[in-house]
Amino acid sequence: MASTAAAFSSSFAPGSSCIARTYSSSTSTLSMKLYDWKRRTADESELNDVENTEFTFDNLRPAPGASKRKERKGRGISAGQGATCGFGMRGQKSRSGRPTRAGFEGGQQPLYRRLPKFVGRPTGPGHSKTTYNIIKLDALNGAAPGDTVNFESLLSSKAITKSKYGIHKIVVGSEEFTAKDITVQAHAFTKSARAAIESAGGTCQLVKRTTGEVITE
What we know:
19% helix
């Protein structure tokens, strides 16, 4: 009995060979990326060969971990987001409905008021549209054949009034266009206005917005 106890105690003594054998075999060959357990056995050699593979709708797939299951809230405490659904028990942000307006930062100066505003460069939707000064074709009826008509000549002849826009567009008016053989210079023309001028023997010339020079086509 004593010899058995001595053998038992010697096998578990510090520095014994039994403990050494236990810790020496703790090596692992597992090499797996996060979230790729669904695809670790899939053969993707064709997809990795980009030069010889054509991607279609039937072989496209999301990257591992890109598609996750939808988080279900309010379905019990075991789900992790039950009861209060992560909004806490009290406070303004736990109430139903939108607690504050968009951009509100609790009373401090909000971001849209801290940033500087550039004069003449408004932001937001609706500010990328080009606004022209509209010149109708019936305003050109007073021009003589062979004349060159532009905004300055029409303004000097009092056929049109001054405009707050610096670029001008020729459009079809309500009255009939009667001018013949004139050269019209503007920043833009509608298709119907260009066709009416050219059918009357005239010429349409586009000019640059910055310098006013004629653009040669």
